[in-house]
# Entry
Amino acid sequence: MSSEVAPLESRPRLRPVVALLSILIAALQAFALAATGSIAAGAALVATALHLAGFVDLLIARDRDGRGGGRSFLAGMALAASGLLAAAAVARILWPQAITAGTAGALALVAASALALAGTSAPGLRRRVGSDDPEAAADPSVLLVAAVGLSGAAFLGSPALDGAAALIVALWLAWGGIDDLRADSPR
# Structure
């Protein structure tokens, strides 16, 4: 018996569940960003938005012609976003800004991470944690990095940790984008 789980396109009943989970996670991240001004929360939100865009591409393109149509485009978006996020993160490291409402923001990111982890662990939605599958609700690892950076900035009084966490997320996005471009390029 194989431990692999069938792709989401072969499980149409789960599509609304994944979409709802992604929207809930994005809403929690948007709250954390709005409440705190954290660049790490913003970086995690961008990562979730890219996962959601990949999910939408999976629904549209694979329903139409049986294969994902925008993987290279999404990889380019991830690379562009990672460059902008990296620049903003370095600016926050060099010129730190105080984090406000750190408790509320950190709790929102921890809740988003728990939802993402539950989504990756649920029997019908199970996937390899850390993979860059377009059907993923969000990567719990990215959310945990953002939560640690935000918490460190708020509770340890070191706002540069927020920028450092955002830089890690930006590098993670760049790595995923490069990996997707390699996978999508003709051999």
Q: What stands out?
A: Confidence is low (pLDDT under 50) at residues 1-10, 126-135.
